[in-house]
Amino acid sequence: MIYLASPYTHSDVHVRDWRFREACRAAATLLRAGITVFSPIAHSHPIAQFGMPTNWEFWSQVDREYLARCDALAVLTLPGWRESVGVQAEIGFARELGLPVVFVTPSELDAEDREPPTLAELLQRKPVNAA
Question: Is the pLDDT of residue 96 over 60?
Answer without folding.
Answer: yes
